[in-house]
Amino acid sequence: MNAYLGVDIGSISTKGVIIDDDNHILASSYIWTKGNPMEAVKELIHHLEKEIGKRKINIIGVGTTGSARKLIGTMLNANIIKNEITAHAIGTLSLYPDVKTIFEIGGQDSKIILIEDGIVVDYAMNTLCAAGTGAFLSSQANRLGVQVEDFGRIALTSKKPTKIAARCTVFAESDLVHKLQMGYKKEDIIAGLCQSVVSNYLNNVGKGKKIKAPIIFQGGVSKNIGVKKAFEEEVGNEVIVDPNGHLMGALGVAILSKKNPLKTSFKFSICEDQFETRGVECNKCPNHCEIICISKNKKLIDAWGNRCSNGDMMSKTSNH
Amino acid sequence: MNKEKVISFPHLGDYHIPFKFLLTKLTNYKVIEAPPITKKTIELGSKYSPDFVCVPFKYNLGNFIETLENGANVLMQAGGGCRYGYYPEVQEKILKDLGYHFELLTLSDNDSITIKSIYHTFKKIDKRIPLYKMVYYSLLTILMIRYMDNIDHYIRLNIGFEVEKNSFIHLKKEMLTSFSTCKGYFSLTKRYLKYKKKFRNLAINKPDNCLKVGIIGELYTSMEPFSSYFLEKELASMNIEIKRFTNVSYLLYQKRLQRRKNLRYINQYCKYTIGADGIDNVYRAKYLIDQGYDGIIHIKPFGCTPEIGAIPIIRKVCQDGKMPIIYFSFDSQTSETGIKTRLEAFYDMLKIKKG
């Protein structure tokens, strides 16, 4: 059976799916990136291999997306490397063909995608500040001494959410500390945080966009039921959270790799190969480009980051 | 004890070539170019600039520091328009505080650059320059800029489809070198026509229904490729035809000639100008919609006030015309990955829409 692998390597978590020709998910995995995308991907592939088990599949397409897409795409010899905006739209559309708006809040970034008749017509991503993203929520959970997974449940118990100033991560944090010291209840503060995530998102990312239903909410933060409820109150529409919402990027890029006529070969044994990255500073002009070299089993397979041909590492070694 | 005067000026795209030409012809100073903009330039510039100033200030300041280190002792700055009007004074103060000794000349007086203000500036350099010589070389330089801009226009339409990689860039370099050694109107025009023909003969492979994108926005980020992280190059690599309005020819005289016509064209959106190129960009957005372009990219330095004023109007124009538009703000702290991701998604969106 032909199968396709999609990997979404975010700042916080790494997601992977294997799909068949009919876009059915055969295996999926979701793990923490822990700041080491290459190791995380190896672990991810290990998990996927286990889940596939004895089923006979032949992976002929590999796609990567997310912030480490280029690095991992090179490592896995992907036949498609796509930005996360397109990947998320394609993945979501395969399950919800009539979706009009996608909210996505991940670990470090948040985006909004507007769709008309199955085509992306507008999108935006947070530009300056990470307030209201997953990383912010988990650091606040830490401060409050609760697990970030319990955040949503606790928020729902609040009757009177406390207002938290959420324009900026740093100020939100100091406002939160201030409210704690004033003696506000913890669940009210947590509910307030969920609301501040939503108002921050709608004011920054969703600024000036017309939000139409059906709305899908995904990304790590969508698992937080408190944020989902705050969205519904603010937008005045039902907000759908898919149980596989966290996999949409990986699913989308797997579908794209299936559509790409150019195929690739992939073996689970890639986990045993030695991959290494090295940063080199090019000193041929004052620009000092930082060039990233990636090697597989001590052999250079790709390099990037140079602005001009002076820093082209590949041409020097392309003779072998 | 008269030290030799060495004059220099900040970079802006390829315009250092005509400007150096003009200075060499009109003054007896030694003319040196600032070193090409690199990461070091912007690092130096940011280090000594107020953090929240718009980014062209930082690039200009970095250029000045690098060229002063190379021995320049007379600097030239343009000024005028928006916050740009404050650049010369503030930069002079910062550089003097850093301990550099130099003289700073501005091309503008009060608020705008006019032929009169340029004349006065050159009179300051050398009282004996005859008027006819000044007029002759100024017009020759303006013609050179005009020719460069014409060729650039052709390049932007076609560079994304070149058959031989870098053929356009190489030919352009050759042309600029040739322009810089021209003797007068006749020789310049002859060279222009020669290269125009050469450019038309460069092999391209351009489909009829290629994606067409217009770039609008603030002038410095439009014209200095380093400051927009080589946006046009990136677009060309995606096989996109590019239309850009802002160039020095436009700023020197076309803008003045078109102002009333432009305002009439967009009279359902605005009635009066809002400074710098704000209204010009509203006009351009509408023009691109009417001409059937596929998308618009609006660029500006972070905190550029005239463009911030224009953005809501442009947004409305694009909503009415169902035109995809993306906004970029550039600063010395901008993440290049973020730009690439957004640009790729923009490309995918246009491509899927076009089918």
Distance N terminus to C terminus of chain B? 72 Å
Rg of chain B from C-alpha positions?
Answer: 21 Å
N→C terminal distance of chain A: 35 Å
User: Radius of gyration of chain A in whole Å, from Cα?
Assistant: 21 Å
Helix content of chain B: 55-70%
- Count of β-strands of chain B: 8
Query: In order across it, which strands form the biggest sheet of chain B?
Result: 2-1-3-4
Structural class of chain B: alpha/beta
Provide the low-confidence segments of chain A as ranges.
Answer: none
Taken from the alpha-carbon principal axes, the silhouette of chain A is: globular
Overall number of strands of chain A: 13
Features:
heterodimer, A: 320 residues, 5-stranded mixed beta sheet, 10 helices, 35% helix, B: 355 residues, alpha/beta, 4-stranded parallel beta sheet
Explain the overall architecture:
The complex is a heterodimer of chains A (320) and B (355). By secondary structure, chain A is α/β, with parallel strands linked by helices. Chain A has ten helices and 13 strands. Chain A has a five-stranded mixed sheet with strand order 3-2-1-4-5, with helices on both faces. The radius of gyration of chain A is 21 Å and the shape is globular. By secondary structure, chain B is an alpha/beta fold. Helices cover 55% and strands 11% of the residues of chain B. Chain B has 14 helices and eight strands. In chain B, strand 1, helix 1 and strand 2 form a beta-alpha-beta unit. In chain B, helix 1 runs parallel beside helix 7. Chain B is globular. The mean pLDDT of chain B is 90. Chains A and B meet through helix 3 and strand 8 of A and helix 2 and helix 14 of B.
